[in-house]
Amino acid sequence: MPIGCYGEETFGMSEARCKPIQSEIDKAIRMVANVGKSAAMERIRNELGIIPVFMRTSTARERAYHKWPTTKTWIAHLIKAPMKARMA
Predict the structure, then answer these.
(1) Which domain, by its residues, includes 37?
(2) What interhelical angle do 41-48 and 15-33 show, nearest 10?
(3) pTM of the model
(4) Tell me: the pLDDT tens digits for 8-52?
C-alpha cells in the first residue's frame, strides 16, 4: 500500500487515477486472503482494516491543501501564486 500511494497528495481526489493502483492492491489482497474473484473486495478490505486508495489519497490531499501553504518550502510559493491558464 505505501508504494502504491507514493505521492498521493498530487493525484488524490481522482478515482480514475486511483483505480489502477487499487486494482493491483486488490489482486494482492485476494492472494493473501486466499479468496476468489466472486468475493466482495469492499467486505474483505473492511475485515482486514484496509482503507481504499481513493479515501487515503483524498485525505492526504486535503491535509496537504491545509498544511502546505504554511510550510517554508517552494510548494508554499506555488500554492500562493497559482499558475493562470493562458491562450496558446
Answers:
(1) 8-80
(2) 70
(3) 0.71
(4) 787 767 888 889 999 999 999 999 999 988 889 999 999 999 999
Q: Are 13 and 65 in contact (CB under 8 A)?
A: no
Least confident piece of the model among 3-7, 51-55, 60-64, 83-87: 83-87
- Identify whether 86 is part of a domain: no
* 88, part of any domain: no
- Quick check: 22 and 71 in contact, CB under 8 A? no
CA 52, CA 50: separation in Å to the nearest integer?
6
Residue 32 inside a domain? The answer is yes
Asked if the structure places residue 37 within a domain, the reply is: yes
Q: Is 34 left (phi over 0), alpha (psi -120 to 50) or beta?
A: left
- Rounded Cα distance, 88 and 9, in Å: 29
